[in-house]
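Hi support team,

I've been running sequence recovery on a batch of backbones for a student project. Most finish fine, but this one hangs at about 90% for roughly twenty minutes before it completes. I'm not sure whether the input is malformed or the queue is just slow. I've pasted the structure tokens below so you can try to reproduce it. Let me know if you need the job ID as well.

Thanks,
M.K.
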């Protein structure tokens, strides 16, 4: 907005400088023309007086006296002619033809003064239109002087006006950026806030309040739905386990499948509740978590009976956050590698402590990820068509891992190329005394 105001003011200043230069040149031309007309009138008076003296002293007729006066007069740059009707009687130009041509050339552009004389004679005194060229010079000089001054003044004034005009909006922007979750918007500390900005702030505050109320209702609904869904799932699983204890060889596989399906629904419910958390609120407070211990615990549980693993974890790698959520993120990455790794090929997991971050890289041997799929893999409920018939799950693993990481100020990214084994990196900020 400030840049737009500045550009507008500069454009107005440039146009003002051009108009000022045009006005100066027009005014100068009019003044010079008026001056030339006065000079011509004075020169004509002098010729008339000289003609009268010639007629009196030498006893000449009007035409001869006027011709003699023109011959003795000195009018450099002027054309003086005496006409009787359409006949040239006398001229200060040596040749009559030249005088006639000079009088006709640019007749309407020249500055002329006409004076009636005795015996039907007419004295015409003309001057070339020099003011036009001089006015053009005035235009150029005026523009050269006015343009830099106008532009400099426009920039200074525009920046001052723009900063003063946008200061209330910048203050509102700063207060909005400082909010966490949907906490109330603090009041402005300025007393001179314009009415338009106050109206905008009131509208934003009303919208903010409606969003807060809506999110509160959604959180209450999610909490109630979680409780109401867990109870029947728990009873179904309990009844299935009781029936499994008394079932024979024929009914046992169906009951085992039912128990597994209930577990899958429970995990899905937990994942959806985690994904429903607002990332902007982060993890308030949080505890100190040894990420290395979490990785060891998860790999021992997820890869113990399925396949070999190559794991490199330090003794200690501390982060601050929710240990249960962090364990969910790590388990989803490890479990994703277990599902899609080539048979009998060890899954690799390496945890390193780099400056400013903790980095857990999980490699899935034998798997490749095309460039076009790198970001789409983190979409919720997205599963590749080639994996659906062979693996269980709901397509929430990577989305859930990224969501948990971002709740803790980190991220999950695919860091491998199309020609490498698929490798995902979990980044988390390390624990500090201020975190």
């Amino acid at each position: 907005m400030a840049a737009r105001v500045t550009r507008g003011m500069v454009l107005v200043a440039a146009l003002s400088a051009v108009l000022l230069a045009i006005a100066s040149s027009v005014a100068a031309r009019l003044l010079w023309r008026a001056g030339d007309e006065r000079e011509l009138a004075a020169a004509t008076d002098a010729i008339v007086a000289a003609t009268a003296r010639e007629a009196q002293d030498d006893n000449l007729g009007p035409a001869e006296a006027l011709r003699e006066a023109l011959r003795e007069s000195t009018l450099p740059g002027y054309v003086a002619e005496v006409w009787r009707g359409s006949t040239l009687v006398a001229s200060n130009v040596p040749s009559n033809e030249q005088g006639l041509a000079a009088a006709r050339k640019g007749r309407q552009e020249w500055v002329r003064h006409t004076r009636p004389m005795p015996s039907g004679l007419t004295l015409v005194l003309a001057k070339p239109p020099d003011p036009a060229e001089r006015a053009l010079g005035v235009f150029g000089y005026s523009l050269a002087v006015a343009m830099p001054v106008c532009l400099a003044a426009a920039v200074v004034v525009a920046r001052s006006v723009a900063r003063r005009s946008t200061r209330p909006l910048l203050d509102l922007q700063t207060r909005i950026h400082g909010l966490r979750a949907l906490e109330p918007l603090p009041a402005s500390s300025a007393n001179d806030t314009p009415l338009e900005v106050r109206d905008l702030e009131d509208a934003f505050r009303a919208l903010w309040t409606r969003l807060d109320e809506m999110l509160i209702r959604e959180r209450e609904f999610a909490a109630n739905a979680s409780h109401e869904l867990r109870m029947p799932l728990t009873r179904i699983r309990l009844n299935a386990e009781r029936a499994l204890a008394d079932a024979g060889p024929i009914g046992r596989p169906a009951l085992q499948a039912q128990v597994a399906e209930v577990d899958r629904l429970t995990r899905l419910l937990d994942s959806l509740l985690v994904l429903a958390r607002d990332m902007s609120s982060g993890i308030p407070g949080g505890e100190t978590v040894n990420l290395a211990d979490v990785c060891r615990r998860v790999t021992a549980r997820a890869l113990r009976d399925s396949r070999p693993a190559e794991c490199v974890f330090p003794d200690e790698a501390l982060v601050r956050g929710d240990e249960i959520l962090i364990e969910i993120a790590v388990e989803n990455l490890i479990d994703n590698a277990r599902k899609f790794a080539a048979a009998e090929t060890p899954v690799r997991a390496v945890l390193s402590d780099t400056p400013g971050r903790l980095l857990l890289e999980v490699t899935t041997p034998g798997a490749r990820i095309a460039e076009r799929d790198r970001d789409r893999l983190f979409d919720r409920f997205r599963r590749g068509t080639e994996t659906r018939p062979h693996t269980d799950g709901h397509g929430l693993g990577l989305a859930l891992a990224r969501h948990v990481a971002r709740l803790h100020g980190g991220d999950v990214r695919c860091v491998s190329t199309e020609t490498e084994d698929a490798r995902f990196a979990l980044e988390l900020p390390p624990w500090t005394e201020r975190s």
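--
Follow-up from support: It reproduced on our side and the slowdown came from queue contention, not your input. Residues 256 and 394 are 20 Å apart (CA to CA). No action needed from you.
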